[in-house]
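If your schedule permits, I should be very grateful for your opinion on a structural question. I would ask you to consider whether the tokens describe a fold that such a sequence might reasonably adopt. Thank you for your consideration; the sequence and its tokens are set out here.
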Amino acid sequence: MPNGEYLRYVALGDSQTEGLGDGDDTVGLRGFADRLAEHLAVGGSEVLYANLAVRGRLAGQVRAEQLGPALALRPDLATVVAGVNDALRPRFDAAEVTGHVEEMFAALTQAGAHVVTLTFPDVTKIVPLARPIRPRLLDLNARIRSAAARHGVTVVETGRSAVATDPRLWGADRLHASPLGHARIAAATARTLGLPGSDDNWSLPLPPRTVPTGRQATGADLRWAAAFLGPWLGRRLRARSSGDGRTSKRPQLLPVAIPSPSAEDMGRRELP
């Protein structure tokens, strides 16, 4: 688009794009895609935005359920973020997962959209128990970069930034970004797109924090396992998903309301 002006933005994906960790089902979810839409609207043009993402969706489900509706909305900008849920499953086929993602890249770019995707950080620095999936995420990142290059898709390298694994950018479940984390992802995407007012501050480290003692860390791990890991494993054993029965939160293109700006909205909030 001339001067980087995008007027029809559609977001495809799973819980990260839906916005889990940034708000809740009572007050509503915000998330990086909502925040990116707000960045787009700051310039004064009327930006229309739809978010088709649904939590728990695998890459194949995102393609099957969201690609057609996304194409029908004729976006000039689209974000496609999928694959982490696949990497968490016992049976993971990186080539198959990337194939679904690449189909979305191809279809959207051929329809004239500027497509953007993200790389995934090393979650083992947040959840040490996730060490077995680290090679999967590295492989997935490499394959996504290659697929993106084949289709002219923009890659936002959030996975390579050291700040991405700061615990303060992650929510209590250690799987979804916190409000600050979502703000940083949005700011990184805005910078990669060269949007007016964007800069590299999203990648700056947060102020030093107090590191918990071994006993405190163990206690926190036990509480996390009881509150989040146990229920997640229970859903896997029952072949259930957190997204069962859910539909996208914003299936139609609607005007973007710009909230009052704050430091956190720009991904710059400083924490003690």
Summary: The chain has eight helices and eight strands. Residues 214-237 form the longest helix (24 residues). Helices lie at 15-18, 31-41, 59-72, 84-87, 94-110, 134-151, 179-193, 214-237.
